[in-house]
Amino acid sequence: xxxxxxxxxxxxxxxxxxxxxxxxxxxxxxxxxxxxxxxxxxxxxxxxxxxxxxxxxxxxxxxxxxxxxxxxxxxxxxxxxxxxxxxxxxxxxxxxxxxxxxxxxxxxxxxxxxxxxxxxxxxxxxxxxxxxxxxxxxxxxxxxxxxxxxxxxxxxxxxxxxxx
Length: 164
Fold this sequence. Notes:
Blueprint: H1 7-22, H2 30-39, H3 44-51, H4 56-67, H5 86-91, H6 100-116, H7 123-133, H8 136-144, H9 149-163
Helix pairs in contact: 1-2, 1-7, 2-4, 2-6, 2-7, 2-8, 3-7, 3-9, 4-8, 6-7, 7-9
Protein name: ATP-dependent Clp protease ATP-binding subunit ClpC
Keywords: ATP-binding, Hydrolase, Nucleotide-binding, Protease, Repeat
Organism: Streptomonospora nanhaiensis
């Protein structure tokens, strides 16, 4: 599936991994995907989020709060063994696994692209995938950061239509 990802979507997934790592989280959740999309300035998803006043620092704090405090560094069982996969190579570090909701969001982004007749998956498709799956953590983080998910969906669809 990742071979269909446009550059902005690939970079957003790598940024999501870095955001999860920076927050001390051991998995990449759907909320981390939203963080990664916002961090990749200039893409459709980042523009949609910006139109709704999304701020990277506020969203990061909302994700941190919704996921709970990270495990203390060096605590027993907190280190993930370094594995190399597509994302691990791109990030140059050990791979952090996706949660089931994040995987479903990425799978849904493919469905969004196919439904629209698009041949590649952009960051906008990934954002719509997250919104379609309705992951409570991602929706809570968006809401806590002052973004209304239903309104964000409409804006993202509009921007994708303009980009076509």
